[in-house]
Amino acid sequence: MTPLRQRMIAAMQMHGFSPRTHESYLASVRDLAKFTHRAPDTLTSADLKRYFEHLVRERELAPASVRLFYNGIRFFYLEVLDWPAVDLEVTLPKRPQRIPELLTREEVAAILRACPDARHRTMLTLCYGGGLRLSEVLAVRVGDIDGERRLLRIEQGKGAKDRLVPISPTLLEQLRTYWRAYRPHDWLFAGRDGARLTPTTLQKAFTQAKQRAGVHKVGGLHGLRHAFATHQLAAGLPVQRLQRLLGHQSIQTTLRYVHWLPSAGEGEGALDVIAQLEVAHG
What we know:
Blueprint: H1 3-14, H2 19-36, H3 45-58, H4 63-80, H5 105-113, H6 118-130, H7 134-138, E1 145-146, E2 151-157, E3 161-166, H8 169-182, H9 199-212, H10 222-234, H11 239-246, H12 251-260, H13 273-281
Antiparallel strand pairs: 1-2, 2-3
Helix pairs in contact: 2-4, 5-9, 5-13, 6-8, 6-10, 11-12
């Protein structure tokens, strides 16, 4: 490992970045060195500008990918090499503002029913019922569930923040049924060896259930989180409370759901979305 790589890892650790961010930022600097055939600490702003023009014009990377490379390289030069500023004068491509194909309650219910494995079905139910990210579901421990107060502790979610997510009575009963059947000790959703399941396992289960249910809308497992958010807003949950439930640092991130759902009401209570699935199915 080179000294520069060691310094960058140490800097990211000091900032509390997630392992995924570590991997992405290191990859961006590695790709820069591969393109220029020079050590990153010998480059100039002109070299960096040429590299990003290459990403946009020649490789035609998606806007999100270009911004990820930009953030990683900017961090490297500001925090590792102590450049006073990084002004590349590069016009980054705008993020396309697209409304995803949102799942209805009926479609969510159909997907869950079409998942034959009880463990995977419970995980997908928790994704939707708590509005959780895939990584958050995989990281749930048995001790994170407070049945008395009906709360789920999400430890070190995105942005390295803890939060408490309310569990509806319907969802809590399903989690208890799952626990009685599998008796997990540490990770709530563990593999046969007791270790955490991999993201691919649940992503594959969702895709297969979606196909069996005959749901052809574009989108992956994160669509359950989008469905939770839009269904809560449609039921009248204030956007500020939805922000806390989803663990968004910025209200602007949550407000996109209002854009996707202009008919959202202004109520006060959270919806028991799992119970509503039974109503939708009935």
